[in-house]
């Protein structure tokens, strides 16, 4: 079933990047003069357009790869959103620093990566020869290149608001354009998509035929609809603080156009995954009608994902746990009857206690058994360790709180009632306390059971039902279950062949519902929303109140698309970024499972931090690039 990635070591497309990179070709690469001279080389050149989106030499430098040249900023963008926290020395300077600097890694990494790909596409469009590949494949290849280019421009505009538009092959010295304005950028993307939609030769979908998993008309409709959604968001006053809002009539027109495009995506043959929800994200099932535009990974060095290293734990392939779910996001998961979750339902005194004192509810059973005597069949080592942990707990929360609330037998079971009756996707997405989850043990290379317990006793590698051990073992935080590979297909944190869905149909259906809601078609929006909820095991929404429906659309979007590098863009478009990521505060720090801050560095919100500034190094090379004058420093 896998994989249609050409080995590019012998036929890599040489890039013109306008990012300060030298336009040189190693001896192992095909030169520009010969790349487009045969059908097979031309096909390799088009397949190679995705090459610049890989981080071929990435270790665990999560914002920029080791060679500093680019690749999709998957980890950085995920950490910028609400649903995830990015840990340790890999924090996003965009949110970590009180002063937003134009030389931040997020700015330069995404800019370089996208423009590398854009200029590769421009070169392919300019040099493809119809006489070499034939009329049909020429039209197909041109549309593929334009759609990859449109995808890159979409990401750039969503991040930077305004960017220079290059649609022709150009050398580094001629990359001197200034940024095109917001509306013109989106219009260019819309026009690109329209050209490919109107091209009768361009493939309708990408899961049949010769060009498997390549761009298609379904992708063009998805990108064009997304462009209309961003135009409808009325962002002019945020991009230009003295800008004016667009009219309500114009907003409704954009939403109408978006809804029509999303309907066309379905007509192209794409649709919701119909199997078990969690199976959608597996290596075995990654190619299906849900996946509109994936970045394909293999188990080949340079084309393999290190995602397990990023989201795993020391208990899973000895990984480093760089991304974890935010506690607020976990608390957002509804009860399985659709009600909002509230900790007071489980612990009536929750709000009466200090944040730090709530730790008592998350303690493992049997701590008190070790206070005065060694329990039967308990080693001296375990006795000393647990007794020491108990004393530390009491020193943190106070003996009165411990005596009043702790259950020596049943503390774990009581806590589980806060998770067992929730949205079925919660335990499939997040490792929650005192429930067995399987991970690949690096020692045995077998999947064994682990539990997230607190306080942790010790690592027990290779032994069933051990304590889960994230990289930061001094705190109890949630870890990811979504995306974890435990079927034996990945046995090394360096090599994960599971694809990354850059665009998938669930996202399109939820935006479709949002667009219909905005145009007053509430019942139709609810029908689309409920298809997603039903697949996830949740009850249908029955309310026809637009505010209730919008709330549930946003809930489903966060739950469904978490850990896919999407949430930042949605929180920005919805104007909820400060509310969700920063808890409506200027400074907010990530929280432990019981909502206590301080386990890692916090982050700062300032006005006008979005859109991002053009990177400082690009401004130095191109004096025509405008600087954002508000909160950004240079």
Question: How does this structure look, described?
Answer:
With 634 residues, the protein is mainly alpha-helical. It has a domain at 1-202 and 602-634: Serine Threonine Protein Phosphatase 5, Tetratricopeptide repeat (Alpha Horseshoe). The protein has helices at residues 32-35, 39-47, 74-80, 93-96, 105-127, 130-133, 135-160, 182-197, 217-232, 236-239, 248-267, 307-311, 327-332, 380-397, 399-405, 411-416, 425-429, 505-518, 522-535, 546-561, 567-574, 577-581, 616-621, and strands spanning 84-86, 100-101, 291-295, 323-325, 430-431, 437-440, 447-451, 466-467, 479-480, 500-504, 587-588, 603-604, 632-633. The strands form six sheets. The chain has a three-stranded mixed β-sheet, with no helix packed on it. It has a two-stranded antiparallel sheet with strand order 1-4. A two-stranded parallel ribbon has the order 2-13. A hairpin with a 6-residue loop joins β6 (437-440) and β7 (447-451). α7 (135-160) packs parallel to α9 (217-232) and α11 (248-267) runs antiparallel to α18 (505-518). The radius of gyration is 25 Å and the shape is globular. The two termini are 49 Å apart. Residues 6-17, 20-28 and 372-376 have low confidence and may be disordered.
